[in-house]
Amino acid sequence: MTDRTPFTGTWRVVRFNWPLYAAALAVAVASVGTLVVADAVLTRIAALGALASALWFLGGSLFASHLVYDRSDLHRGRWLARALPQSPQHIAICHCGYDEVSALVHDTLSPASLTLLDHYAEATMSEPSIRRARRLFPPAPGTLTAPHTAWPTADGAFDAVLGALAIHELRSAADRAAWFSEARRCLTRDGRIVLVEHLRDVANFMAFGPGFVHFHSAATWRRAWESVGLSCADSFRITPFVRVFVLRPHD
After folding, report:
1. 60 in Cβ contact with 207 (< 8 Å)
2. What is the 3-state secondary structure (H, E, C) of the chain?
3. Mean pLDDT, residues 203-232 taken together
4. Distance between terminal CA atoms of the chain?
5. What tens digit of pLDDT does each residue of 129-166 get?
6. Beta strands 242-249 and 187-198: pairing type?
7. How many CA atoms lie within 13 A of 143 on its CB side?
8. I need a surface site. Which of 4, 111, 190, 201 has the fewest CB within 10 A?
9. CA torsion 185→153→161→186, rounded to 10°?
10. What would the CATH number be for the domain defined by 76-249?
11. Residue 251 — very low, low, confident or very high, per pLDDT cuts 50/70/90?
């Protein structure tokens, strides 16, 4: 995208999650101070552990964020050519308060229609990072408010449905299955659903530490889409930290 700098993605991650980064930095500074003045062995060991944890979070998460959001193909679009080689003409982009990819999809695929569906629910999506993202980058004009269980769109309206780095905000298995059910309802017979997500796996644990539990495992996603009659036609990675799943209805 022409309006992106080499650190646009990383800076947005920091802005959305700045209290966590500020806290980690404060822990690191306090730990260094403790190591300088403390004499007790146990105190120094505790300070070293706190410093290592803070640096792990700061270094790992910032490195992964920069790799994914600034250095990878995520905002360049080649992955779209693999996921949707038929260049669908009617596309829905689903998000939960922050739209990551609609401008890229518009510029890369030039569909005849692009429908933006916002599943954000203030009562259940209470994470401060989501609210900051929504405040800093409000939904684009024309975006439809769409409860994840009941989209305001017709059956078979779309050749492709994309959920990019957003659907993990649906925290229960029932909610995720409901989203896939609606996506399938709104899909044409030969259409595709593209799910792009961080996973609860080793790579994301190494990058985000305990924060990786906010993501869902590949097996969890598979159970959700299989429960509504979808199968995986293709799967590939954008960096070690993000996986793309291309889904289709069972024949």
Report:
1. yes
2. CCCCCCCHHHHHHHHHCHHHHHHHHHHHHHHHHHHHHCCCHHHHHHHHHHHHHHHHHHHHHHHHHHHHHHHCHHHCCHHHHHHCCCCCCEEEEEECCCCCCHHHHHHHHCCCEEEEEECCCCCCCCCHHHHHHHHHCCCCCCCEECCCCCCCCCCCCEEEEEEECCHHHCCCHHHHHHHHHHHHHCEEEEEEEEEEEEECCHHHHHHHHHHHHHCECHHHHHHHHHCCCEEEEEEEEECCCEEEEEEEECC
3. 95
4. 37
5. 999 999 999 999 999 999 999 999 999 999 999 999 99
6. antiparallel
7. 22
8. 190
9. 20
10. 3.40.50.150
11. low
Residue recorded with tokens 């595709």: 192
Residues 6 or more apart whose CB falls under 8 angstroms from that of 129 comprise: 16, 17
Q: How far is CA 178 from the centre of its chain?
A: 18
Q: Residue-wise over 102-130: b if at least 16 C-beta within 10 A, else e? A: bbbbeebbebeebbbbbbbbeeebeeebb
In the chain, CATH 3.40.50.150 sits at 76-249
At position 238, the amino acid (one-letter code) is I
Q: Looking at the DSSP assignment, which residues form a beta bridge with residue 199? A: 216
pLDDT tens, position by position, 3-14: 788 999 999 999
Report how far Cα 148 is from the mean position of its chain's Cα atoms.
Answer: 16
Which among 50, 60, 57, 36 has a CA at the least distance from the CA of 203? 60
Helix axes 218-226, 173-185, angle to 10 degrees: 50
Full-model pTM: 0.93
Q: What is the mean pLDDT of residues 168-193?
A: 96
